[in-house]
Design brief:
The strands form three sheets. The protein has a seven-stranded parallel sheet with strand order 3-2-1-4-5-6-16, with helices on both faces. It is of the alpha/beta class. Helix content is 31%, strand content 25%. The radius of gyration is 21 Å and the shape is globular. α2 packs across α11 and α5 runs parallel beside α6. The structure holds NADP nicotinamide-adenine-dinucleotide phosphate. The site of NADP nicotinamide-adenine-dinucleotide phosphate has 23 residues, from α2.
Length: 362
């Protein structure tokens, strides 16, 4: 009988499953998210950070501890040679956090896959890659199957709040007619680069110009979240409409520790997107991030039988939530069948215990 089967049976009989050897992880992109993931993993048992990849000259050659502000060296030196790090350390999984876009992530993820490593990535477009570039998605799926590994794109949004959570909530519905998901964030509670990224403090003209040049892009992932919800419900959408990014203009003076926004200036942005079926808006996502938002929340409304109104208040912190989702999905990605997966294809997500090995194989 296969060892895994014996282990599953022991678990079902209430016995402690035998411990597996540790999970080995390589961090690909030691930025804000990759760094925070590494820091959390270093505190957990049964999992070991064995390598780190980044192309920034400020990081290459340094011990991870120096970048993470830790006193004790980790023994892991940041390298820019991804293939070398992955082939030498042979990780079970690569945590990839370098870019939002599939075309840029593709070759990086392929390097991991071709060296036999599973991948969990925060690349927004990878959360439901079939709508951006189905051919690239198929190539990644084939490569993952050929090498017997799993690839997942996830995070807090896309990856959880505006898609997986909404999909999961439809489980109690006999019928679903429409879904509305809202995320409203007070950007003052977020990191300064995020406040800059949403245009806080600019005039409306400056904001409009930055949208025109692409310096402000808005939220990446609304299309992916809508497509994932539709796929989970078996809805064939006519199209997905992503509205232009709009400035949220302050009606009174608001400020964060880093940015002061006078009335009439931009406090942040709002973006909506709709999934259209038979000419009707059946899915609407509404993303708002601005300094001074009086209430921060995540909400899901399902029009159906029965109706569902769910609200998380205050809204989930983006960075903390992203790091958690990425780390918590590690055992599920390692255990999944090979191929390119999305969150809707994997078991119900959940927090992982301190010793991550015990969750493998369940
Ligand atoms: N799905 C979600 O919910 C979610 C949530 C948070 C973040 N994200 C996405 O995840 C990505 C990472 O986020 P972040 O906040 O950590 O960004 P970040 O702070 O900019 O970190 C990215 C890191 O990756 C490095 N890098 C870029 N290209 C690389 C390459 N080809 N090889 C090796 N390293 C490379 C960067 O180096 P340089 O500094 O030299 O560029 C930087 O150190 C972003 O695209 C972000 O939008 C998604």
């Amino acid at each position: 009988m296969r060892a895994e089967l014996v282990e599953r049976m022991n678990t079902m009989n209430g016995e402690e499953p035998p411990k597996r050897s540790e999970i080995k992880v390589v961090i690909y992109g030691v930025g804000e998210i990759g760094g925070r993931v590494a820091k959390l993993l270093l505190k957990k048992k049964g999992i070991r950070v064995v390598g780190a990849i980044d192309m920034s000259p400020r990081k290459v050659g340094k011990d991870l501890a120096e970048l993470l502000g830790l006193e004790e060296p980790t023994g892991v030196t940041v390298s820019k040679d991804a293939a070398k790090v992955i082939s030498e350390t042979k990780p079970d999984i690569v945590v990839h956090a370098t870019t939002s876009f599939l075309k840029d992530a593709y070759s990086q993820i392929l390097t991991a896959v071709e060296h036999g490593a599973n991948v969990v990535s925060t690349t927004e477009e990878l959360s439901y890659p079939y709508i951006v570039d189905p051919k690239l998605a198929e190539k990644l799926d084939s490569a993952a199957k050929e090498h017997g590994v799993t690839v997942l794109g996830t995070g807090i949004n896309p990856g959880f709040l505006m898609d997986t959570l909404a999909i999961t909530l439809t489980a109690v519905c006999q019928e679903v007619y429409g879904i509305e998901v809202k995320r409203v964030m007070n950007a003052a509670t977020r990191r300064v680069p995020f406040q800059k990224k949403i245009g806080a403090g600019l005039t409306v003209e400056e904001f409009t110009e930055k949208i025109r040049t692409g310096a402000i892009t808005g939220h990446v992932g609304l299309e992916q979240s809508i497509a994932m919800i539709a796929a989970a419900l078996g809805w064939k959408l006519d199209k997905i409409d992503v509205e232009p990014v709009k400035p949220v203009v302050a009606t009174k003076r608001v400020e964060s520790q880093a940015v002061k926004v006078e009335a009439g200036r931009v406090a942040g942005l709002r973006q909506q997107a709709h999934g259209i079926m038979d000419g009707e808006k059946v899915i609407t996502l509404d993303f708002q991030a601005y300094i001074g938002a009086e209430e921060e929340y995540d909400s899901v409304t399902i029009k159906g039988v029965p109706e569902v109104h769910e609200k998380i208040s205050p809204c989930v912190h983006g960075d903390l939530g992203t790091v958690a989702v990425v780390v918590n999905m590690i055992p599920k990605v390692i255990d999944a069948s090979p191929g390119l997966k999305t969150m809707k294809d994997l078991p119900v997500p959940s927090a992982t215990p301190e010793d991550m090995r015990t969750y493998l194989g369940r």
